[in-house]
Prior knowledge:
By secondary structure, the chain is α/β, with parallel strands linked by helices. The chain has 2 domains: 46-241 and 403-494, Zn peptidases (Aminopeptidase, 3-Layer(aba) Sandwich), CATH 3.40.630.10; 245-285 and 337-393, Alpha-Beta Plaits (2-Layer Sandwich), CATH 3.30.70. 37% of the residues lie in helices and 18% in strands. The chain has 15 helices and 17 strands. The strands form 4 sheets. Strands 1-2-6-3-7-15 form a 6-stranded mixed beta sheet, with helices on both faces. A 4-stranded mixed beta sheet has the order 14-9-8-16. It has a 4-stranded antiparallel beta sheet with strand order 11-12-10-13, with helices on one face. The longest helix is centred in the first third of the chain and has 24 residues, at 2-25. It starts with a helix and ends with a helix. Bound molecules: zinc ion (ZN).
Amino acid sequence: MKNILLGIGGLVVLLIIVLVTRTFLYGGAPEGVQSVDLPDPPAVSAETAAQHLSEAIQFRTITVAPGDPRPGQEGPWLDLQAWLEETYPAFHAAAGKETVPGGLTLLYTWQGSDPSLKPLLLMAHQDVVPVNIGTEGDWDAPPFSGEIKNGYVYGRGAIDDKGSLIGIMEALDALARDGFEPRRTILVQLGHNEEISGSGAQAGIQLLQDRGVEPVMALDEGFMVLETNPLTGGTLGFIGIAEKGYLTLKITAKGEGGHSSQPPHNSATVRLSRALVALDENQLEADFSKPPISDMMRVVSMEMGFVPRMAMANQWLFGGMLDSQFSATPAGNAMIRTTTAPTMLSGSAKENVLAQRAMAIVNFRIHPNNTPEQVMQHVRDLTDDIGGIEVSEAEGSIGSEASPVSAIDNRAYGVLNAVAGEVGRGAPVTPALVLGATDSRYAAAITDDVYRFMPAIMTEEDITGFHGTNERITVENMGRLARGYGQIVLAMDAGEE
Ligand SMILES: [Zn+2]
């Protein structure tokens, strides 16, 4: 007995040594990130950039439904494009501009002197989401006024995505005024309908693919530096190296129908409910072992206390605990797994009629760890033994796989990492997963190196304006965007890869 106890005691001591050692060895900047010295781009006044953003916000380039803008309603887009030409004359003189056929997406080409270098592709979008009817009065300034007050530019599109669009234009116009002549061709694609389908960006990427263009990097919206991030509470730079995919399934339960005065057990409606409960209780599996999540854990663990760090360093033992901690918040859960969201329901058309078909629409956001086929199989496996359940892709669903995960050991990521570090005043920077969809998902067709980052720093309150009330960006951030994009262009132009 004594020997057994000694044996167990020895094992416990050994386990503790392993856990603690692994914890001390764990964490820090992700491996392989290149260190890059950032060049100084020509100065751009933050106030001027903010004033220009204010003007850009006043063009109501709102997209709501597929096909927007409808024929005859292109005015705001054409006005914005004419305004860009007037406001950024040096860039427009240096670069060629074309409209991508079939829409209002713009593609600029600033020809580089060395055709052996792969071009740089900067992306942003011209359109914005609408303001919910009845909420205009909740804004501190009217949503399409572009009013500048208390150090902020207010208006729909300030963050998503006219801030980036103007930042790119400010940077490139300043470079052109300064006499900069790129060695590496600079491409700028401004999508016209990102908020509905992104068909404009898709067509633009197709055009580049037809021309055999393979960018050294495609840079789009998606992340920034967060002043107080929900993971550690401190400042953290996020660079999106992947984004989730999208799948909508229709789940149908069939039944006999008939009068509700003599209902059967386990009717179509009840079986549909069982299916939804099964989906809710059996989420797709989380996996922390691969980038970007594995990299992100290493970075954030350095900002956390010993116990959470020990859990992250020893996932073989604490994986279940980590899973339940991340899963406790919708944002954390969305980061680690494919999410399951039942959104629409229908049954019978009348209160005293049994449903012959009860139907639910379930929207999945697919993690890079999963494929759409796996999600479909998961749903079939869970609903198979309920009986009378059919699973199919919803009509008109814009199904897409998760994007590939871009590398972090190349110059492109190194440059963004350095810019994010400067914007965050030395705060750590982490690769991250973008939870929504951006135009950049199409760019994967022409380059492995797709990144999602804007050189700005925001608070949690700023982020709530994204698609919401009081969308705004600081005047200072407009200066950071102009400087950051200038740094990215110059640093990529200096690189050989
Ligand atoms: Zn956007």
